[in-house]
From TrEMBL, chain A:
Highest classification ranks of the organism: Bacteria, Pseudomonadati, Bacteroidota, Flavobacteriia, Flavobacteriales
Signal peptide: 1-20
Protein name in UniProt: Porin family protein
Boundaries of every Outer membrane protein beta-barrel domain copy: 7-193
Domain of life: Bacteria
TrEMBL record, chain B:
Limits of the DUF4136 domain: 43-209
Record InterPro entries: DUF4136
Classification via Pfam families: DUF4136 (PF13590)
Protein name (Swiss-Prot/TrEMBL): DUF4136 domain-containing protein
């Protein structure tokens, strides 16, 4: 069901993009764990990339989609964990690979200016792959939890139809399947261009 | 709203920077364990009904039993190399003696019988021709007169120790009141392996209920 929704949504986005103006961005993401994510990862994620597509329905309002890849990892060192009468010791590593696939609605406040702030909301799903490794064992949990992502940002036009983008997002990721809720904040900087 | 001229779009620059993003991302894929020791694990479990704080007598066999799927339990026992076997037995002895327990002969009716064993597990990755189904018809494949074998793999070693209580026999079954297991990659020199065995044996005997 989720795959169908995602596929149809992406097709709709592409279908309406034939003649109107479109905006694209590729950003590098710096992410900060929050909530349950910070229980599993103390470190900032320096590994992330995002691709955004906006299709303008009016001068200010655009719909589109957003996808990307964020990697959290943490080396916990030598850990001893006891559960009931069982105890397991070893070097622990946690990894989270997070791939959001969201439909977005964005409002650009001054689209004709060199500085164009915007606000956006994304709704969709995130494919999360959480690995908790110890020794040669890996305990893997995967799922497609629901996600809501409010975002604020600003586009700065460098040259004709090419600019820089900086934005700040909160990725709320619900618990689902076998995964806990794994939210995080992200600061993004990159390129934005239009056609 | 501005309507830009797409012919001026510096696509090449965007492409280069986008690729740089991706390459940076791939290049920075999270670090994994660097040393073989970091793949070691030590596991223990025990019966909550048994009192480990008392002093006991125990017996140890002369060697560490080699577990092999190709041999039946009725076959004559085989033991692992003394280089490792003696290390395992001596470290078990040191740890149990440190608990105030006393080693006795198996003929002297020990309170507990320690059963150390070891086995290897091989993980092999075989090449699966089905990966090419996207390119050519997926009929199934065979290799006339030969087999290409595995592409990659690794081997792990496990030391498994059981502590049996012969005084608690019920219906001919001997209760095992404690188990400890060490697992790690079988790589490195003998001295390295011995050091890892000693460290991990100390670890299982520092875990509950011995802590």
């Amino acid at each position: 069901m989720r795959k169908t929704v995602i596929t149809v949504s992406l097709l709709l986005c592409f279908a309406v993009s034939v003649s109107a103006q479109n905006k694209f961005s590729v950003t590098y993401n710096l992410a900060f764990p929050s909530g349950n994510t910070s229980d599993l990862f103390e470190s900032t994620s320096w590994r992330g990339v995002n691709f955004d597509y906006h299709h303008f329905l009016s001068d200010e309002f655009a719909i589109g989609f957003s996808t990307g890849w964020q990697i959290f990892s943490d080396e916990l060192g030598f850990v001893t964990e006891t559960s009931g009468t069982e105890t397991l010791s070893g070097f622990r590593y946690n990894y989270l690979n997070s791939y959001p696939i969201l439909l977005t609605g964005s409002y650009f406040f001054n689209p004709d200016n060199q500085f164009s702030p915007y606000a956006s909301i994304g709704l969709g799903f995130v494919y999360n792959e959480l690995n908790e490794d110890i020794g040669i064992l890996t305990f893997e949990k995967t799922g497609w939890p629901f996600s809501v992502r409010p975002e604020i940002g600003i586009d700065y036009e460098l040259v004709y139809n090419l600019g820089l983008r900086a934005s700040f997002k909160y990725n709320y990721v619900a618990s689902g399947d076998e995964l806990p809720s794994l939210p995080y904040f992200a600061f993004n900087i990159g390129l934005v261009w239009t056609n | 709203m501005k309507h830009f001229n797409t012919s001026n779009t510096p696509i090449r620059l965007i492409g280069i920077i986008s690729m740089a993003f991706l390459i940076t991302l791939m290049g920075c894929y999270p670090d994994e364990p660097e040393y073989v020791e970091e793949y070691d694990i030590a596991y223990s479990n025990y019966s909550p009904d048994f009192s480990f704080s008392d002093s006991y007598t125990y017996s140890l066999p002369a060697g560490v039993l080699a577990i092999d799927d190709n041999r039946d339990p009725e076959d004559p026992p085989e033991f692992i190399d003394d280089v490792f076997g003696n290390t395992i037995l001596e470290r078990i002895r040191e740890n149990l003696n440190a608990e105030g327990w006393t080693e006795v002969s198996e003929d002297a009716n020990p309170d507990l019988i320690i059963l150390p064993s070891a086995f290897e597990t091989e993980f092999l990755y075989f090449y699966n021709p089905d990966y090419w189904c996207w390119y050519y018809s997926c009929w199934g494949w065979w290799y006339p007169g030969y087999f290409p074998g595995y592409v990659s793999g690794f081997k792990t070693g496990t030391v498994f120790i059981q502590m049996a209580d012969p005084n608690g026999v019920e219906n001919d079954d001997v209760p095992v009141v404690w188990v400890g297991a060490l697992n790690g990659l079988l790589q490195g020199s003998n001295n390295n392996t011995i050091g890892r065995i000693e460290r991990n044996l100390d670890q299982v005997f520092s875990q509950p209920p011995f802590d």
